[in-house]
Amino acid sequence: MRSFYQPTLGIIIGNRDFFPDRLVAEARAELIDFLKQLQIKPVMLSDADTKLGGVETFAEAQKCAALFRDHAREIDGVLVVLPNFGDEKGVAETLKLANLNVPVLIQAYPDNLNKLDVVNRRDSWCGKISVCNNLYQYGIKYSLTTKHVTSLNDETFKKDLLDFVAVCKVVNGLRSVRIGAVGARPTAFNTVRYSEKILQRNGISVTTVDLSEILGNANKLTANDQSVKDKLEKIHAYTSTGKTPGDKLIQIAKLDVVLREFMEANALDCTAIQCWTSLQQNYGCNVCTSMSMMSENMLPSACEVDVTGTLSMYAMQLASGSPSALVDWNNNYADDDTKCVLFHCGNWAKSFLPDIQISTAPILGTTVGTENTYGALDGRTPAMPLTYGRISTDDCKGIIKAYVGEGELTNDELKTFGNRAVAQINNLQGLMKYVCRNGFEHHVVMNASKTAGILKEALENYLGWETYVHE
């Protein structure tokens, strides 16, 4: 279930004694209304706590930092507002003392050409540079607005702030994400190998479970168990079952029950599952339907035990607020060098598949028997926005690296099976050279959004991961 999320920002309003104080009071009142409209909860000093609720002196910085520490569990990021030049040390000291380790956005008000006299001038253009200089000296990471100075009612700032909130979600989410690895990596898929130690060093935990445990627990369930009956109802509500036999639907439901229990028992945010060929040979169905339902419900699930693939799905989900899908960079599209076919057996979230139905996996069926592949989904993704990308551990360098970019999904004709889409990407050939030369996987993640900038800011600036943005 998707639930309403209200972001919380710590607010620092800078002030400087020889600039007009009233600008601070005006900005504070304007800011409260502005954040209310955007449904963002502020944590900020009152005008009774400090002079007009601003931060200038070290004593005021201490008060603001204490307030932030009291609300540390709530605060997703910090917005610094400069209605005048502001005291750069006051801002830096507040952030240092609060020690929140969250993203910081610096906003500065523009001056009016007709009000550059002593009683009206802001000089925030200059003050913002000084604040950033101090944060740089203190080693505090920060984000900038599109325009160097911008009023709150400027549409570009509204977008900047909403993008910043998304950056906060990505950064804070990835620093504590918990991933479930179900089963062993298929031996033919060296491409999805990863470093669990590098991930853990970055706050990302992986919980493993042997596939035999999952299948064993699924086999203990029966069609009469209420949990299985409930799951069957959810499957029928989720998708057309096509020609899938009833006994296969029960198998799919039993497997889904056990996977959900595993996730809940370990407080997992996403999973990577050994989807073939042990499942088909030892249990008799595909797990694609369950993976699709999990991804649609914002619990991303990747196949072939692609742990950094599901991490990429989770990152894009955080950035956009919508489901992601793991896909193969799979085929050329005729002789069009800007287009390619994205494909997978059938585990994409329902959001990508308006014509979704449960089917089989014909390619896999050639080796394990088509009758053992029920559960794969069939459906074509129509035209929609596209953000694509991939996070990967580079064990040789001891780092986490990523690439991201934007394009479009199109309605171009495509006659095939499984989950499929056509992507159009500028300089696609250059992107493929980058992917191949830098040792990235054949799996990539797609999301119906335009969030590459948000992902770059979160992954590179705040998490320190080497990130390439394809233009």
UniProtKB/TrEMBL annotation:
GO terms for cellular component: cytoplasm. Coiled coil: none annotated. Keywords: Carbohydrate metabolism, Isomerase. Pfam families: Fucose_iso_C. Residues 342-469 form the L-fucose isomerase C-terminal domain. One of its GO terms (biological process) is fucose metabolic process. GO terms for molecular function: L-fucose isomerase activity. It comes from the Bacteria. This is Fucose isomerase.
